[in-house]
């Protein structure tokens, strides 16, 4: 039995699983492993310091896999934005055929990618944003529930409601994102109307993920309660792993202080140092509630194979048995 969906057909991959863009983590080592396992991996464009560095990283990934992979381009409102147009051009000129967009006003980029024949998945956290992206002409949506790592939006709608609510209205294929990490989640996502799942935190706890083993072990040891929501009062909510730094930042923020009062705690460079050092208490790092369902650090291939075989067994045996298919067959 093979799980074929509109997503696997559209992007030419074997399994309905994607590894979304993750800052500092979406590099050639992880993305090529995801591609080789039959899923769709995305390099994170802005992890590379320049568009030229991204071109090299794409080439490096191609040396490690001959299967499809994409690039994530996240558009963040910023006083000094990176040269998005140059990153976009680098993606197009490198012959990449799949892009995951996320963030702020992607219209210009979606239009340019589509004109170049690139398929676009847009990641969003609300049905209204998904419909807006669909009108822009994206090929697929990744709908991100409140459980997710990173930015869950400000509506606080969990996947159990958000995914079918989006599926009722969105016509293009849709990936379910936020809180997925095993075969049970994949079956649930398909039942809710999605065409596959997009995983971030679960892929961080794999052998090939380019982060320190100390962080991977922290993910394994953490449970589903081990996250904090930062930046709520600034209307830019971020779900991160719960540690002493995150707890302190939340406390200062809840006292009504401006962002400047916590900026030294939540600096990206500090979080990145923690990922390299393997110290989960060093800075802020992104993780979702799915930590509560992560119990090991397998290879990417073992993880993907396990998710698919578990999903097939649930569909074939458990659900089949519940509606008496086995008796009919007998």
Quick synopsis:
The protein is built from 15 helices and ten strands. It is α/β, with parallel strands linked by helices and 330 residues long.
**Total number of strands:** 10
The proportion of strand residues reads 5-15%
Q: N- to C-terminal separation?
A: 19 Å
CATH class division of the largest domain: Alpha Beta
Shape category: globular
Radius of gyration: 19 Å
Within CATH, the superfamily of the largest domain carries the name Aldolase class I
Strand order of the largest sheet: 1-2-3-4-5-6-7-8
Major beta sheet summary? 8 strands, parallel, barrel
Could you walk me through the main structural features you see in this protein, from its secondary elements to its overall organization?
- The protein has 330 residues and is α/β, with parallel strands linked by helices.
- It has two domains: 6-204, Aldolase class I (TIM Barrel, Alpha-Beta Barrel), CATH 3.20.20; 213-289, no CATH class.
- It contains 15 helices and ten strands.
- The chain has helices spanning 6-11, 28-36, 51-64, 84-93, 107-115, 127-136, 159-167, 183-191, 201-204, 213-221, 244-254, 263-266, 268-277, 300-322, 325-329; strands spanning 17-19, 40-44, 70-75, 98-103, 119-124, 140-144, 174-177, 197-199, 227-230, 238-241.
- The strands form two sheets. An eight-stranded parallel β-barrel has the order 1-2-3-4-5-6-7-8, surrounded by six helices. Strands 9-10 form a two-stranded antiparallel sheet.
- Helix 3 (51-64) links the parallel strand 2 and strand 3.
- Helix 3 (51-64) packs parallel to helix 4 (84-93).
- The longest helix has 23 residues, at 300-322.
- The chain is globular.
- The model has no long low-confidence stretch (mean pLDDT 96).
């Amino acid at each position: 039995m093979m799980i074929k969906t509109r997503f696997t057909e559209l992007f030419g991959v074997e399994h309905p699983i994607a590894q979304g863009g993750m800052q500092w983590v979406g590099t050639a080592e992880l993305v090529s492993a995801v591609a080789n396992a039959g899923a769709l991996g995305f390099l994170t464009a802005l992890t590379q310091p320049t568009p030229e560095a991204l071109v090299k990283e794409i080439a490096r990934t191609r040396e490690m896999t001959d299967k499809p992979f994409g690039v994530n381009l996240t558009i963040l409102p910023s006083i000094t934005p990176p040269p998005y147009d140059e990153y976009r051009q680098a993606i197009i000129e490198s012959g990449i055929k799949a892009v995951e967009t996320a963030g702020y006003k992607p219209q210009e980029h979606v239009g340019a990618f589509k004109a170049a024949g690139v398929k676009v998945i847009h990641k969003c956290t609300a049905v209204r944003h998904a419909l807006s992206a669909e009108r822009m002409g994206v090929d697929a949506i990744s709908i991100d529930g409140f459980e997710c790592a990173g930015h869950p939006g400000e509506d606080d709608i969990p996947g159990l409601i958000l995914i079918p609510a989006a599926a009722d209205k969105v016509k293009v294929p849709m990936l379910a994102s936020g809180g997925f990490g095993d075969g049970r989640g994949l079956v649930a996502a398909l039942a809710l109307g999605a065409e596959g799942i997009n995983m971030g935190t679960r892929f961080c706890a794999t052998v090939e993920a380019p982060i320190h083993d100390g962080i991977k072990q922290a993910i394994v040891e953490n449970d589903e309660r081990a996250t904090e929501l930062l930046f709520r009062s600034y209307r830019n909510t971020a779900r991160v792993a719960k540690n002493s730094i995150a707890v302190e930042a939340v406390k200062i923020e809840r006292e009504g202080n401006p962002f400047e009062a916590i900026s030294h705690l939540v600096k990206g460079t500090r979080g990145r140092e923690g990922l390299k050092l393997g110290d989960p208490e060093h800075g802020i790092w992104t993780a979702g509630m799915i930590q509560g369902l992560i119990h090991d650090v397998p290879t990417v291939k073992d993880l993907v194979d396990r998710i698919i075989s578990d999903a097939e067994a649930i569909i074939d045996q458990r659900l089949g048995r519940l509606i008496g298919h086995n008796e009919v067959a007998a």
